From TrEMBL, chain A:
A Pfam family it matches: Phe_tRNA-synt_N
GO molecular function, one term: transferase activity
Catalytic function, reaction form: tRNA(Phe) + L-phenylalanine + ATP = L-phenylalanyl-tRNA(Phe) + AMP + diphosphate + H(+)
Name of the molecule in the record: Phenylalanine--tRNA ligase alpha subunit
Cofactor binding, per record: Binds 2 magnesium ions per tetramer.
Location (main, coarse): cytoplasm
EC code: 6.1.1.20
Matches recorded under PANTHER family: PHENYLALANINE--TRNA LIGASE, MITOCHONDRIAL, PHENYLALANYL-TRNA SYNTHETASE
Similarity comment: Belongs to the class-II aminoacyl-tRNA synthetase family. Phe-tRNA synthetase alpha subunit type 1 subfamily.
Keywords, ordered alphabetically: Aminoacyl-tRNA synthetase, ATP-binding, Cytoplasm, Ligase, Magnesium, Metal-binding, Nucleotide-binding, Protein biosynthesis
Residues the record lists as binding Mg(2+): E256
Biological process annotations from GO: phenylalanyl-tRNA aminoacylation
Organism: Jeotgalibacillus salarius
Aminoacyl-transfer RNA synthetases class-II family profile domain location: 111-320
Automatic annotation (TrEMBL), chain B:
The keyword Nucleus belongs to this UniProt entry's keyword annotation: no
GO molecular function: ATP binding; catalytic activity, acting on a protein; magnesium ion binding; phenylalanine-tRNA ligase activity; transferase activity; tRNA binding
Protein name according to UniProt: Phenylalanine--tRNA ligase beta subunit
Subcellular location as annotated: Cytoplasm
Keywords: Aminoacyl-tRNA synthetase, ATP-binding, Cytoplasm, Ligase, Magnesium, Metal-binding, Nucleotide-binding, Protein biosynthesis, RNA-binding, tRNA-binding
Domain FDX-ACB: 709-802
Family annotation (PROSITE patterns): B5, FDX_ACB, TRBD
Domain (B5) ranges: 409-484
PANTHER family referenced in this protein's UniProt entry, alphabetically: PHENYLALANINE--TRNA LIGASE BETA SUBUNIT, PHENYLALANYL-TRNA SYNTHETASE BETA CHAIN AND LEUCINE-RICH REPEAT-CONTAINING PROTEIN 47
Gene Ontology annotations for the cellular component aspect, listed alphabetically: phenylalanine-tRNA ligase complex
A Pfam match: B3_4
Amino-acid positions noted as binding Mg(2+) in the UniProt annotation, renumbered to this chain: D462, D468, E471, E472
Cofactor remark from the record: Binds 2 magnesium ions per tetramer.
Length: 347, 803
């Protein structure tokens, strides 16, 4: 019996060794370890053995069974691995073929610029205000210290719809409306982005429709130094920490004193080049302390309240930032232009 | 305003200040210098020569052989083609080795066999703009006065080695529209004194008043009118220095009398006009408003028709000049003029502005009068004119002035506290600092009971209120010296309004869906204005459009987006996917039109593709619709949205849906009608437009977590055969209604209307998911609910289960 068991073991191990695939291996398992297999058959004869031999034979039978089982498992592992490897080899692809394009949209560059400015001022406690693009003459001009007959408000320069209604020429009427809503009580701290319209012929530097973004802060004790500090933060965040700002006196009917802000030219580092027309400075925006007449018109007491305002053109900023040479590109929606702004610039 | 550095030196010491430094200082303290130009830059080796002889070239009709003394040992021979070259002239000679504008180098040459050692130059050849060259020399070479020194630097003699500062003047700084005004400004910046011209001349016994009588009938429009009379003038060329300065200021020299009036215009900012006394004829000047349709031929030889708003200078009978705008042709000073009347006046700014605008006629004079000149300058300028005419036109000045003066000239007093100056600017200036600044500006200031009181000089009409003084102090203290601070106040947190947040969400969703944001014009033409409008209104029209193409305000964004699509497809870009958000303008009878914010999209060509795998997915209705669905999902309003087959002008009648939000139409999605598409040069194109106002108006539902169900759901599929006219949306609503609360989801997964279907029928297959979050469903419950669904569908649409 012992010999028979040893023979069976040898036989089984050999067959396991030669099993070519998982099916053959399984056949071996069924053949040797199954209920009707030879080992079970052999063990049926255990009854005939002596009490001494029985446990010995039992242990041997178990050992044979275990050895075969282990061998099968080992072999199975090997075969499985082989099968996987074969499958993987068959499945390999050319990873350099183009990937599947994901339709990717993106924002217009003006939106990108405007939202960047919005977010910067929001972080400084400003809210975003909006107003109508078709505006009353009162809010567009009169409330801003530009009474009827003022030389700076020529009919030729604005798109009028009636004598008293026009397409707003700047986003300042939003300031006038917001101040009026505050009914003489500060603080007012807003920025106003939006479309504006002027009676210009479209060319490389003029557009009858363009964007503007303005800011206004009105409260007690708002100083010109606050305007300067605020614009400095804006310039450095928007154009880079290494930029210097320069304020120059200027004139706007709705501010007094009025300033224009230049930033140092990035291209030449202030030495003078064609972009800055040799001056080393690039004009970015206009600003000033809110004119007392404007405060009065909106119901604020100019003895108690002061304020500053600033305004800039997102087109101009985008043109400077990205080196765009023609303002009309912003409104043509040429894919060759727009797609250049699909990428996000993170600084 | 062009400011000659050399001319400015006459009024102020500019030692140690280069033109560039001066420009930077002026810019920083108030007036932007837009450029500094040195006319002679790039030109060298041009001297004054004396044409000793001039003979016709034997081989060429138009050429002359000149022997020219250029101050060297030997004369040089120069071949000159100018028609006006002649023996005895003093001329500008570019010697061999000279460089002219455009890097044009002068070399030895042979012209038709004759040697030429240099070139006799016209002013244009020396870089002077043609419009500034006096007529006499416009077609040929320039002649210096006979006393010019041979061999001297011609560029210096022509003052082309000057530096010209171009000032960009804001409307409030009319005071700087004169050399003296710029001198005051420069004086304040550099803290140096201003030297004004010394006036004085001899007068004849005859009185001006006897030679010309002045009557002003419109004193409001003309508060000051002064007339000087100068007799026996010799009209001729001005001295070279005066010509040079005029050219630097951008004015073409004419003759000494006209040049003197222009010179004073630039020097004092006071426009003058010279009349020929003998041409006036009547011995009197009457200033009055013009009569309706009165006519005058102006200096530019154009006939102008006037109206009752225009002020005219007459001889008591007919207009001789349009006051402050332009002189008349008939009383102009000519070569034959002997006796001259010089007008120096103050005309009301509004009168000149209106006249100039209505006649479309602007001049150096009108541009100054309309901004307001210094009323004190009228008499100074008149005196200056008399002086220069006696000096440079050999005139005899009659004594006194014939005048009409009806204006009290007063300096305005403005007071401000030091505290306010510092509070508004954020500086810590002392009283002394402030007074010092006004002293530099030559503005009188004094301190009375804690207030600084300033007398605003008449030359500074822009100083009216406290804030104007603050600006003066701040700009001269230096904007650079103002500290940088941030507002110190109670701040509310900043942020976007719900509407603005939704707009950004829409933008991100549309872009995430693959659309590119476009920005188009709000103004469109009459045809497009109502096309694709959800509810067309009477168009909002401009009173004075620049063109028909941009004359009305859009009521839909789609037409502009389609234009952008067509623009790109005309440039080999067959696939486009744009969206835009923006206002449309809908008149509603009130003063301002309703401005509705809309979202629109336009898609054409391929939507997705993967060429090497052979995949090409063209845009279709469902692509566009799917984008909107993604948006509803993001906004959390999917349950409130429904689509309904719809029809609309310019849209495909079978491929267009109305979009309903809370059962109210808020938009449209569909295919552009093929006829319209063809008209616009478009291929199959899909569009959508959504009115955002209603969606913006509603608050979004609060986000609340629902427990993840612990019990399994059970799915059952049904395939229904219905008439083709029954749409999927209807079936889906019936199923949802009938399924009860256990039915959690209905998903259409198959549509078949092929050959195997009976004519006019289609099959739709839905997958229904049942679930109870509280327990495991029994089969019976599901069967019951499912049977109800089938029953309802059969009853309401006649649909049958597909066998």
């Amino acid at each position: 019996m012992e010999q028979r068991l040893q023979e069976l073991k040898q036989e089984a191990l050999e067959k396991i060794q030669h099993a070519a695939d998982l099916k053959e291996l399984n056949d071996v398992r069924v053949a040797y370890l199954g209920k009707k297999g030879p080992i079970t058959e052999v063990l049926k004869g255990m009854g005939k053995l002596s009490a001494e031999e029985r446990p010995k034979m039992g242990a041997l039978a178990n050992e044979v069974r275990d050895t075969i089982t282990n061998a099968i498992e080992e072999k199975q592992e090997g075969l499985e691995k082989e099968a996987v490897e074969k499958q993987l080899a068959e499945e390999s692809i050319d990873v350099t073929l183009p990937g599947r394009p994901v339709p990717a949209g993106h924002a217009h560059p003006l939106t990108t610029v405007i939202e960047e400015i919005e977010d910067l001022f929001i972080s400084m406690g400003y809210t975003v205000e909006e107003g109508p693009e078709v505006e009353k003459d009162y809010y567009n001009f009169e409330a801003l210290n530009l009474p009827k007959g003022h030389p700076a408000r020529d009919m030729q320069d604005s798109f009028y719809i009636t004598e008293d209604v026009l397409l707003r020429t700047h986003t300042s009427p939003v300031q006038a409306r917001t101040m009026e809503r505050h009914a003489g009580k500060g603080p007012v701290k807003i920025i106003c982005p939006g479309k504006v319209y002027r009676r210009d012929n479209d060319d490389a530097t003029h557009s009858h429709q363009f964007m503007q973004i303005e800011g206004l802060v009105v409260d007690e004790n708002i100083r010109m130094s606050d305007l300067k500090g605020t614009l400095n933060v804006f310039a450095k965040k928007m154009f880079g920490e290494d930029r210097e700002i320069r304020l120059r006196p200027s004139f706007f009917p709705f501010t007094e004193p009025s300033v224009e802000m230049d930033i140092s030219c990035k291209i030449c580092g202030g030495k003078g080049c064609s972009v800055c027309k040799g001056t080393g400075w690039i004009e970015i925006l206009g600003a000033g302390m809110v004119h007392p007449n404007v405060l009065k018109m909106a119901g604020f007491d100019p003895e108690k309240y002061t304020g500053f305002a600033f305004g800039m053109g997102p087109e101009r900023i985008a043109m400077l930032k990205y080196g765009i040479d023609d303002i009309r590109h912003f409104y043509t929606n040429d894919d060759r232009f727009l797609k250049q702004f699909a990428r996000k610039e993170i600084r | 305003m062009f400011v000659s550095y050399k001319w400015l030196e006459e009024y102020i010491d500019l030692t140690d200040v280069t033109p560039e430094e001066l420009a930077e200082k002026i810019t920083r303290s108030g007036i932007e210098v837009e450029g500094v130009e040195v006319p002679a830059e790039g030109i060298k080796n041009v001297v004054i020569g004396h044409v000793v002889s001039c003979e016709k070239h034997p081989e060429a009709d138009k050429l002359n052989i000149c022997q020219v003394d250029v101050g060297e040992e030997e004369n040089v021979q120069i071949i000159c083609g100018a028609p006006n070259v002649a023996e005895g002239q003093k001329v500008a000679v570019a010697k061999v080795g000279a460089v002219l504008p455009g890097n044009f180098k002068i070399k030895k040459a042979k012209l038709r066999g004759e040697a030429s050692h240099g070139m006799i130059c016209s002013l244009q050849e020396l870089g002077v703009e043609a419009k500034l060259v006096e007529k006499k020399y416009a077609e040929g070479i320039f002649n210096f006065p006979q006393n010019a020194e041979v061999g001297a630097d011609a560029l210096e003699a022509l003052m082309l080695d000057d530096a010209i500062l171009e000032l960009g003047l804001t409307p409030n700084r009319a005071d700087a529209m004169s050399m003296i005004g710029v001198a005051y400004e420069t004086g304040a910046i550099l803290d140096r004194p201003v030297k004004l011209p010394e006036l004085g001349y001899e007068t004849a016994a005859e009185r001006a008043e006897d030679a010309i009588k002045v009557t002003v009938e419109a004193v409001e429009e003309n508060p000051i009118y002064l007339a000087k009379v100068v007799k026996g003038v010799k009209v001729g060329e001005s001295p070279q220095w005066m010509k040079n300065r005029l050219v630097a200021a951008g004015i073409r020299p004419h003759n000494n009398v006209v040049d003197i009036t222009n010179y004073i215009l630039i020097e004092y900012g006071q426009p003058l006009h010279a009349f020929d006394l003998d041409q006036i004829g009547t011995g009197e000047i009457v200033v009055r408003l013009a009569k309706q349709n009165e006519k005058i031929k102006t200096l530019d030889e154009a006939e102008r028709t006037l109206n009752e708003n225009h002020l005219v200078i007459t001889n008591g009978e007919v207009p001789m000049a349009i006051a402050g705008v332009m002189g008349g042709y008939d009383s102009e000073v000519t070569d034959k003029t002997v006796n001259v009347v010089i007008e120096s006046a103050y005309f009301a700014p509004s009168t000149v502005r209106q006249t100039s605008k209505e006649l479309g006629l602007r001049s150096e004079a009108s541009s100054r009068f309309e901004k307001g000149v210094d009323p004190k300058r009228a008499s100074l300028a008149a005196e200056r004119a008399a002086q220069l005419l006696s000096l440079y036109a050999d005139g005899e000045v009659l004594s006194g002035t014939s005048a009409s003066e009806n204006m009290v000239i007063k300096e305005k007093e403005i007071s401000i506290s030091l505290e306010k100056i510092n509070r508004v600017t954020g500086t810590e200036l002392s009283e002394q600092d402030v007074l010092e600044i006004f002293r530099r500006l030559q503005i009188e200031a004094s301190v009375n009971s804690g207030l600084i009181t300033v007398s605003a000089p008449t030359r500074r009409g822009d100083l009216e209120i406290e804030e104007d003084l603050i600006e003066e102090v701040a700009r001269l203290y230096g904007y650079d010296n103002i500290p940088m601070t941030l507002p110190v106040h109670e701040t509310n947190p900043g942020g976007l309004s719900p509407r603005q947040q939704k707009r950004r969400l829409i933008r991100q969703t549309m872009e995430g869906a693959g659309l590119v944001q476009a920005v188009t014009y709000s103004l469109t033409n009459q045809q497009k204005v109502t096309e694709f409008a959800l509810a067309a209104k009477t168009p909002v029209e401009l009173m004075m459009p620049m063109s028909e193409e941009r004359s009305q305000l859009r009521q839909s964004i789609i037409p502009q987006l389609l234009e952008s699509v067509a623009y790109n497809s005309a440039r080999q870009k067959d696939s486009s996917a744009f969206y835009e958000t923006g206002s449309v303008f809908l008149a509603d009878g009130s003063e301002l039109p309703n401005e509705d914010e809309h979202l629109a999209g336009a898609l054409t060509g391929l939507w997705q593709q993967h060429p090497w795998q052979g995949e090409k997915k063209p845009v279709d209705f469902y692509v566009a619709k799917g984008m909107l669905d993604a948006l509803w999902e993001k906004l959390g309003i999917s349950d409130e949205i429904r689509y309904e087959a719809s029809n609309m002008d310019h849209m495909h009648p079978g491929r267009t849906a109305a979009v309903l939000y809370k059962e109210k139409q808020v938009g449209v999605v569909g295919q552009v009608h093929p006829v319209k598409a063809k008209e616009l040069d478009l291929k199959e194109t899909y569009v959508f437009e959504i009115k955002l106002e209603d969606i913006y108006g509603d608050e979004t539902a609060p986000l609340k977590y629902n427990a993840i169900p612990r019990y399994p759901s059970i799915s059952r599929d049904i395939a229904l055969v219905t008439d083709r006219s029954v749409d999927a949306g209807t079936l889906e609503s019936i199923i949802k209604d009938a399924g009860g609360k256990l039915l959690k989801n209905v998903q259409l997964f198959d549509l078949y209307q092929g050959d195997k279907m009976e004519e006019g029928k289609k099959s739709l297959a839905f997958s229904l998911t049942y679930m109870d979050p509280e327990r495991t469903l029994t089969d019976e419950e599901v069967v019951k609910a499912h049977d109800q669904v089938l029953e309802a569908v059969k009853e309401k649409t006649g649909a049958a289960l597909r066998s």
